[in-house]
Amino acid sequence: MREFDYRRAEDVPGAVALLDADPDARYLGGGTNLVDLMKTGVERPARLVDIRRLPLDHIESTGDGGLRIGATVTNSDLAAHPEVRRRYPALAQAVLAGASGQLRNMATVGGNLLQRTRCGYFADVTRPCNKRLPGSGCPAVEGEHHNHAVLGASEHCVAVHPSDMGVALAAFDAVVSYRTADGAGEVPLADFYLPVGDTPHRETALPPGALITGVTLPPVPSASRSRYRKVRERASYAFAIGSVAAALDISDGVVREARLAFGAVASRPWRAYAAEHVLNGAPASADRFAAAADAELAGARTLPGNAYKVTLMRNLAVAVLSELAEETAR
Ligand SMILES: Cc1cc2nc3c(=O)[nH]c(=O)nc-3n(C[C@H](O)[C@H](O)[C@H](O)COP(=O)(O)OP(=O)(O)OC[C@H]3O[C@@H](n4cnc5c(N)ncnc54)[C@H](O)[C@@H]3O)c2cc1C
Ligand code: SF4
Questions:
Q1: Cα–Cα dist 195/24, whole Å
Q2: What is the pLDDT of residue 1?
Q3: What residue's CA is closest to ligand 2, atom 6?
Q4: Which residues contact ligand 2 via a Cβ below 6 A?
Q5: DSSP letter string over 163-218?
Q6: Ligand approaching nearest to the C-alpha of 144
Q7: pTM: predicted TM-score of the whole model, two decimal places
Q8: Is 147 in the pocket of ligand 1 (CB under 6 A)?
Q9: Hey, which bits of the chain come out as E strands?
C-alpha cells in the first residue's frame, strides 16, 4: 500500500498551483482509469488533486453555433445533453458505446481524452514496455497484439488509444482548452496526441501540469446527421476493436463535405483525411466509399495478429457511409 496525499481543488488557479508545486501530483477526474492504474502500480502519484468540484461541469452554446463542453462534464451528462444529441449525434452515440452506465456517471471529458492504452503489457509492471518504461522494449510486436494499431504506429509502440468519445471529437475538429500556471492555451485535437515515433511515453502536446478546462466543437452543419459505429468482441462493456465516426453533406448525389474518423486503429483517434479527400466532390456511391476507405488504409502496417483490422475498417467505413447516404436520399 503506497500512501499519497489527497487535495480537493475549489477553483482552477488553485488546482493548477497544486500541480505546479509537485511534479509527482496528478489530477483526479472520475478516477475510473487513474485509480485502476494506481492499484497495479503503473501510476504512483504522490498527490491527487481532485478536480470534480471545479466549475467546469457545464455545456454551453458558443456565439458561432458550436458547443463548449467543460472538462468535468461526466460522460453520462454529455451523452444526454439535448444539444449534443441534436447537433452532434455521433458524439452522443460514441460516449454511450463506451464503458458502462456506472462508469459513465463518474468518467469526465478531460479524463476520457487522457485515459491510457489498454495494452496488456503496459498494465503489467513486470513486463517491459516502452510507453511505461522508455527504452525497455515493446513485447506486443512479437506477442499479443490482436487489438493493436495498424495506422501511425512504430516499432517502438503499437498500442491504440481506447477512447470512443475522442473519435467523434476528431471528426468534428474539436479544440482542447487548458490552463497552466503561465496562463490559458488551446490545441486542436488533430495536434493534441503526439506521433508515436521513438517516444511513445510522450503522449500529448499538453504542457507539464496543464489542466484541461474544456473542449470546443465548432459549428458543423453536416454533424446533425452523423453516426458512430463501434465493433467490439462483446455486445457491451468492451473496448472497440474498430470504430468509425462519420458525417456526410450530400446534395444532388454529390458529396459536398465528408468527415470521417477511425477508432482503435492508432495511438490516437485517427482522422481519415485521405478518405475525405477521395469523397469530397465525388458521387455518393458505394464504389466511391470503398475507394475512400482503401485510400486511408493504404498506409496500414499490420502484424500477424491484427491484419484483420484492415478488412474490418474497410467494411465498417463503407457500411456507415452508405447508411448516411441512404438517409440523406430519403
Ligand atoms: C471496465 C471499463 C471499461 C471501459 N470501456 C470504455 C470504452 O468502451 N470506451 C471508452 O472510451 N472508454 C472506456 N473506459 C475508459 C473510461 O472511459 C475512462 O476510464 C474514463 O473516461 C476516464 O475518465 P476519468 O474522469 O475517470 O479519468 P481519471 O481516471 O480521473 O483520469 C485519467 C487521466 O486523466 C488525467 N486527467 C483527468 N482529468 C483531467 C483534466 N481535466 N486535465 C488534465 N488531466 C486530467 C488524470 O490525471 C489521469 O492521468 C472503460 C473503463 C473501464 C474501467
Ligand atoms: S504496444 Fe506500446 S504500450 Fe504496448 S507493450 Fe508496446 S510499447 Fe508498451
A1: 24
A2: 77
A3: 138
A4: 117, 119, 121-122, 129-131, 138-140, 148, 157-159, 200
A5: -SHHHHHHHTT-EEEEEETTEEEEEEHHHHBPP-TT-TT--B-PPTTPEEEEEEEP
A6: 2
A7: 0.98
A8: no
A9: 5-8, 25-28, 47-50, 59-61, 67-70, 175-180, 183-188, 211-217, 227-232, 240-251, 254-263, 270-271
Q: For residue 119, how far is its CA from the centre of ligand 1 (angstroms)?
A: 15
Nearest CA to ligand 1 atom 28: 31
Assess contact for 29 and 54: CB atoms under 8 A.
no
How distant, in Å, are the alpha carbons of 86, 223, 284, 321, 323 from that of 255?
22, 14, 6, 11, 14
> By CB neighbour count within 10 A (0-12 exposed, 13-18 middle, 19+ buried), where does 96 fall?
buried
Task: Find out whether 226 and 90 touch, Cβ atoms under 8 Å.
Answer: yes
Q: Note the pLDDT of residue 2.
A: 87
Closest protein CA for atom 17 of ligand 1 = 112
% helix, strand, coil for the chain, step of 5: 35, 25, 45
Contacts of 293 (CB under 8 A, 6+ apart): 275, 313, 314, 317, 318
pLDDT tens figures, 166-201? 999 999 999 999 999 999 999 999 999 999 999 999
Q: Give, using CA atoms, the residue closest to atom 3 of ligand 2.
A: 122
HSE of 41, CA atoms in CB hemisphere, 13 A = 8
Which atom number of ligand 1 is nearest to the Cα of residue 206? 43
Nearest bound ligand to the CA of residue 132: 2
Confidence (pLDDT) at 151: 98
Q: Please, which residues have CB within 8 angstroms of residue 154's CB and are 6 or more apart in sequence?
A: 196, 197, 198, 200
pLDDT tens-digit readout, 41-70: 999 999 999 999 999 999 999 999 999 999
Residue 115 CB less than 6 A away from ligand 1: yes
Which residue stretches of the chain have pLDDT < 50?
Answer: none
Ligand nearest to the CA of 127: 2
